[in-house]
Design a protein that fits this description.
This protein is an all-alpha fold. It is built from 15 helices and two strands. It has helices spanning 3-21, 29-40, 46-57, 62-83, 100-104, 106-128, 134-147, 152-165, 170-194, 200-227, 230-233, 239-242, 248-252, 254-276, 281-292, and strands at residues 93-94, 97-98. Strands 1-2 form a two-stranded antiparallel sheet. The protein is globular. The chain binds geranylgeranyl diphosphate. Residues 43-44, 46, 76, 79-80, 82-83, 88, 95, 152-153, 156, 180-181, 218, 221 line the site of geranylgeranyl diphosphate.
Length: 295
């Protein structure tokens, strides 16, 4: 199976499991509809596919990976709903559709995000009772940490602050993106590893790899913001330069940002090949999927 066939297989498994997870019988219809609206809008599912890909690479327990992958996608979707709110990035479009608050109103959008975040942990923790494997709970703790106040939320907070104060240097830019973007990718990769019995060395290698693809993801996001096609990307573009934001493109210029992306891709490759050799094809191909993505 090539990369796109494997990704399609993973996406099918994840989408089916998400549909089961989000039946939400006791939940008010409007809240359930708002939660499902953004999850069902699709998205590339890069994070849950990585969890599945790493799990397969380490011959891990796929049933564990599916639960963790769904939890991760719910958390990621909550972050997008909240990021689009007028008090955050104020975006009208997401995943090719009007943003959640444009359809359901701000209050329900806040609650849909809160709902997805809380339910993700309810869903993952309840499922864990069937596995009786401490590694599963290590994975859930890793996801909580990376999504939380020393991870993605810390990055978002620093990003909001930088809008008033300006980002002063590259170190601050890296801090924001490591937390805001890379941490959830690191959580996705490590969660997949915990579905097997990873060595400390493998965990370190996978964390380094995911950090590099997080950086690559952000450089590419900045490049797409500058020169992407709205119809393909599915969200408002050109906002970074309109808001005078410090990005990899404003820092280095478009051409140098592209060269930087290529070199970060090669660093990610090295981290991986050293530890996993030819078993890492899916993770290797993910680097080039991110580098060449148009949405
Ligand atoms: C509100 C706590 C909180 C956090 C928001 C996700 C996020 C943090 C901000 C979104 C802004 C942004 C452009 C971040 C850069 C990276 C990123 C997370 C892009 C969106 O992820 P994709 O491209 O989206 O994987 P899909 O829709 O494909 O899932």
């Amino acid at each position: 199976m090539n990369y796109s066939e494997r990704s399609a297989e993973y996406r099918n498994v994840i989408n089916e499991a998400l549909a089961d997870a989000l039946v939400l019988k006791g939940t008010p219809k409007l809240l359930r509809d708002a939660m499902k609206y953004s999850v069902d809008a699709g998205g590339k599912r890069i994070r849950p596919c990585l969890t599945m890909g790493v799990c397969d690479m380490v011959n891990g327990n796929r049933r564990m990976a599916i639960k963790l992958a769904c939890g991760i996608e719910m958390i990621h979707t909550y972050s997008l709903i909240h990021d689009d709110l007028p008090c955050m990035d104020d975006d009208d479009m997401r995943r090719g559709r009007p943003s959640n608050h444009k359809v359901f109103g701000e209050g329900q959008a806040v609650l849909a995000g809160d709902g997805l975040l809380t339910y993700a942990f309810e869903w993952m923790l309840e499922a864990g009772l069937n596995f009786n494997d401490p590694n599963y709970y290590r994975a859930v703790a890793e996801i909580a940490k990376r999504a939380g106040v020393s991870g993605m939320i810390a990055g978002q907070s620093a990003d909001l602050m930088s809008e008033n104060e300006g980002i002063k240097n590259e170190a601050e830019l890296n801090y924001i993106h490591t937390r805001k973007t890379a941490d959830m990718l690191i959580a996705s990769v490590l969660a997949g590893a915990y579905c097997g019995n990873p060595t400390e060395e493998q965990l370190i290698c996978l964390e380094n790899y995911a950090q590099k693809i997080g950086l690559l993801f952000q450089i590419k996001d900045d490049i797409l913001d500058a020169e992407g096609d709205f119809a393909v990307v599915g969200k408002t573009l050109g906002k970074d330069s309109a808001h005078n934001k410090l990005t990899f493109v404003s820092l280095y210029g478009l051409e140098k940002a592209k060269v930087l992306a290529e070199s970060v891709a090669r660093e990610a490759e090295r981290k991986l090949l050293d530890a996993f050799g030819d078993k890492c094809q899916y993770l290797y191909d993910t680097i080039y999927y991110i580098l060449n993505r148009s949405n």
